[in-house]
Design a protein that fits this description.
This protein is of the alpha/beta class. It has a 6-stranded mixed beta sheet, with helices on both faces. Strands 5-4-3-6 form a 4-stranded parallel beta sheet. Strand 4, helix 5 and strand 5 form a beta-alpha-beta unit. The chain binds ligand F0G.
Length: 356
């Protein structure tokens, strides 16, 4: 069967108004990749799968919610959309808006957006405005301006974003035949964890697929849901989740509690270490924020507070590594330079062992 995108495949399960006019880039349908080496590294005895959301059309999971939000907006004749973003929402909104023939405006925190995301937003034709402040400041501003002007807000406060993002939970259940025992994922503005929990509950009501326990993971320098209060100046290498006042924080806490899971924080070092071993053991390169869920899982298993034995665990990897190349190139050893001669290449590769 040909794939026509998420609204075609799961539209009947999404609460979207009848005026919705589908705008799609054939998002979703992402692979659930077994990660046996990584599971082994965490102690083994369980099945680990990576839901690789970086393979969506603009390189992140945001496309699932964006096809829904832009389709709804297109159906009621919206001409301009706006969002605040740490980068991925901006690129996604810009791409879908272009496809719908709309203008997009994106507000980003100055100097804190990874190169691949800013480039995406510009390439897709967004009007980009940098805010000399945080993501949280930018979000406050777009909420206000969308109330006062005919500009549609496409942040995950928009309920259709959540509807679209539920589809990943449906896909996981369809692929495994039922929900996994645990689901781990990064938490920033908390739209995604909210959507997963809503999606799993809906599918369980319909198809008895069971419910996962949810492990939400924040970066230690931006962990308002773990600390129990907003963080005025969030700081982390995982710029995607550098958020101090999550818009759907309450719902994230509910999802963790109702699922008998929890929300924890991991350090930047744990995030970068996980990013590296995921790429070097499994061949899956994700941006730093996307490694946070797995870093949290590794920490919980090592601490003995999550027993993975015999379980199926799914980790959501939300964005592609290409979004943030600098995080890797910044700290790498410069590759050696060799003149274009075979003996020089042999010398560089084999040193003293080279045949003479
Ligand atoms: N992972 C990545 C790669 C993200 O870009 C985000 C959020 C998250 C995880 C967290 O998801 O906010 O639903 O809890 N990025 C938003 C943005 C904030 O503007 O692109 P969340």
């Amino acid at each position: 069967m040909q794939y026509h995108g998420l609204l075609e495949k799961y539209g009947a399960l999404l609460n979207l108004p009848s005026h919705t006019r589908p705008i799609t880039l054939l998002e979703g349908n992402t692979p659930l990749i077994p990660a046996a080496h990584l599971a082994h590294e965490m102690g083994g005895g369980f099945e680990l799968f990576i839901k690789y959301e970086g393979l969506n059309p603009t390189g992140s999971f945001k496309d699932r919610g964006m096809t829904a939000a832009i389709s709804e907006a297109a159906g009621r004749g919206v001409t301009t959309v706006i969002c605040a973003s740490t980068g991925n929402t901006a690129a996604s909104a810009a791409a879908y808006a272009s496809r719908a023939g709309m203008k997009s405006i994106v507000l980003i925190p100055q100097g804190k957006v990874a190169a691949g995301k800013l480039a995406g937003a510009v390439a897709y034709g967004a009007q980009v405005v940098q805010i000399d402040g945080s993501f949280d400041d930018a979000l406050t501003m777009v909420v206000e301006i969308s109330k006062q002007h005919p500009i549609a807000l496409v942040n995950s406060i928009n309920p259709y974003r959540i509807e679209g993002q539920k589809t990943s939970a449906f896909e996981i259940c369809d692929a495994l035949g039922h929900a996994p025992e645990w689901l781990c994922l990064p938490v920033g503005n908390a739209g995604n964890i909210t959507a997963y929990w809503a999606g799993f509950r809906q599918y369980n009501d319909l198809k008895w697929t069971g419910l996962p326990r949810i492990l939400g993971v924040q970066a230690a320098g931006a962990a308002p849901l773990v600390l129990g209060h907003p963080v005025e100046r969030p700081e982390t290498v995982a710029t995607a989740i550098r958020i101090g006042k999550p818009a759907r924080g309450e719902q994230a806490l509910e999802a963790a509690e109702e699922s008998d899971g929890r929300i924890i924080a991991v350090s930047d070092d744990e995030i970068l270490h996980m990013q590296k071993i995921l790429a070097q053991r499994e061949g899956i390169w994700v941006e730093p924020a996307s490694a946070a869920g797995l870093a949290g899982l590794a920490r919980e298993i090592a601490a003995g507070s999550l027993n993975p034995r015999g379980k199926r665990i799914v980790a959501i990897c939300t964005g592609h590594g290409l979004k943030d190349p600098e995080i890797v190139t910044r700290s790498m050893e410069r590759p050696v330079v060799v003149p274009p001669r075979l003996d020089a290449l042999e010398e560089a590769l084999l040193g003293e062992q080279r045949p003479r």
